[in-house]
Amino acid sequence: MAALDVANDTIEVAPVRKRRGPGLLFLCASGWIVLIVLAAALADLLPMPSPTDMDMLGKRAPPSAEHLLGTDNLGRDMLSRLIHGARISLTVGLLAPVIGVVFGGALGLLAGYFRGRFEVFAVGGVDVLLAFPPLVLALAVTAYLGQSIMNLTLVIGVLGIPAFTRVARAVTLSLSEREFVVAARALGATHARILIRELLPNVALPLLAFFLLGVAVTIVVEGALSFLGLGVPPPAPSWGSMIGEGREALEIAPWLAFFPAGTMFITVLAFNVVGDTLRALTDPRPGAL
Amino acid sequence: MIAFVGKRLLYLVPVLLAVTLLTFLIASLLPGDLAYTMLGDQATPESVAALRKQMGLDLPIWERYLRWLGNVALGDFGRSFRTGETVLAAVLDRLPVSIELMILAEVFGLALGIPLAILCAVKSGSAIDRFLTGLAFGKLSLPSYMVAILLIYLFAVQLNWLPATGYVPLGEDPLGNLRSFLLPALTLAFAEWPVLMRVLRSDMIATLQEDYIAMAKAKGLRPARILLVHALKPSSLTLVTVTGINIGRLIGGALIVETIFALPGIGRLLVGAIYARDFIILQGVVLFVAAGFVIVNFVVDMLYAVLDPRIRHGRA
User: Which residue of A has its CA nearest to B25?
Assistant: First the structure.
């Protein structure tokens, strides 16, 4: 999550944004996300060859009418594998940050509101988890637990908790001194009521923006694990493992690596664009709007 | 300054202890019996029980942790049950490769990031600034394994200038060594320059609005002198931190890049240990990588205090 932290800590002194409405880039990015989610959801209904059917006579075929994006090292249809691979990337990519948002968000909210010893332990624990390079920890734990979509999601999700804790805590810290919280407290509201009714709705939007950036990072990490052959086990297609398989044929059929790499790049970029636009809109720092 | 170092050291100890505890717990609590793995096909209930006893696996978990921690403190991280190599020897053997890769990557990254950041800061808001900032943002979505493949395709397959994989020891052939490191180091540098550029750019824009810069301009100093002498150093604090974090990360080797380019560094040792289910090497290397990261960050914190007096006097 290193890239995320840096992106979030960078204080932009850039001039105030001229455009307030969503730009063309934002619309394109949202459109791509909708398209890829639909394709992944409807993969079984689309008129495509099976992603695991091999055709040993027609391997590494260039794009044609029969196989729109050609075939891979084992003669499997590339387009079909890309779309089925989207299922894995999106499942892990969307579910893992949910773990981060729920646990990290709650931890950060409580730490930022109650302060004191709880905050010291929460921040200390987060620091310890951050000391482990995420990919190393993800690899080590999947090596012990075994490779499956659920284990991958769990591991990457837990690794995302520190980043969400930091965001939630920082936002809560700046909010809990604000008038509406002080007023609620003066009116005798309980801690639970302040946390749920006053703070949570205000913390939710920055967390949502960060969630989308988390999806982008997760897709990249899942791709890295699959690329190393330690992600979802074959023959299930995954973008990362497709890039890894394509690398072996880079000299004869470079498109085998370039198609999945391009699809993944556009998808990750789309989540980054949407997430960053939302982040800029919800950033509590002055001048961010 | 001494009080500052002491305070940071006091924080370092519990973090390092927690790191060892977490490393140990991952290796101990997760399913999979080490004795079973070691014996492989020959495992019988009796031989597994005997081996567990011999290795102390039948002791309560806290006692095993303390024993292990005691050994680690004495420099004994255990040895691979496959090759018999000690973890320490394996790490020390691979470390020079990872360090050379790290140094080259940082040099390339900074050589690309610093000039571009200065350019963007000076021309802040211009077309070139927006283009480079956009490029840096786009680059964040391009992970290293894609960059590696693009570079291999371009420089090894198409142009045939550089080897795609392979490692030549420095002692044997310095030039060949550099050639074998060029593509992997460039891959890592491509991952780093956008972050370095973004960080330095925003700090520099802030610095350029300071009064003393206006003063320097009024005195008629050459722009190059103002930028490189007066503005760069005070703007480079965050840059130092980020570079430090990167170095800390790369001490543990670059898992993916070392694997793709077949460089025998720490990252490849780790991936190899995972493929071979060599859990003792895995545990030792994870501990080494995490502890290295914590310690490098500590050193960077110190460096930060040396660079900026406000921090060691607790005013920042």
Answer: A141
Question: Is the separation of the CB atoms in A61 and A82 below 8 Å?
Answer: no
pLDDT, tens digit, 9 for 90 and up, residues A173-191: 888 888 888 888 888 888 8
What is the rounded CA–CA span in Å between residue B184 and residue B151? 9
Amino acid symbol at A223: G
Q: How far apart are CA A219 and CA A238, in angstroms?
A: 10
Question: Tokens representing A211?
Answer: 């969630």
Query: What pLDDT is stored for residue A34 in this prediction?
Result: 92
> Tens digit of pLDDT for each residue in B69-92?
888 888 777 777 777 788 888 888
The DSSP 8-state label assigned to residue B41 in this structure reads G
Q: How far apart are CA A177 and CA A113, in angstroms?
A: 10
pLDDT digits (tens, 9 = 90+) for A211-265: 888 898 899 888 888 888 888 877 788 888 888 888 887 777 788 888 888 899 9
Q: Is A76 exposed, middle or buried (0-12, 13-18, 19+ CB in 10 A)?
A: buried
Which residues, in sequence order, are bridge partners of residue A71?
A77
Question: What pLDDT, in 10s, does the model give residues B251-284?
Answer: 666 888 888 888 888 888 888 887 777 778 888 8
Q: Which two tokens stand for residue A271?
A: 């989540």
The model's pTM: 0.80
ipTM score above 0.95: no
| Radius of gyration of chain B, Cα coordinates, nearest whole angstrom | 24
B294 contact residues in A (CB cutoff 8 A): 131
Cross-strand pairs, B86 = B79
Q: Give ∠ CA A109-A112-A115 in degrees, rounded to 5.
A: 130
Interface test with chain B among A4, A5, A6, A265, by most B beta carbons within 10 Å: A6
Q: Which of B194, B55, B49, B225 minimizes the C-alpha distance to B132?
A: B194
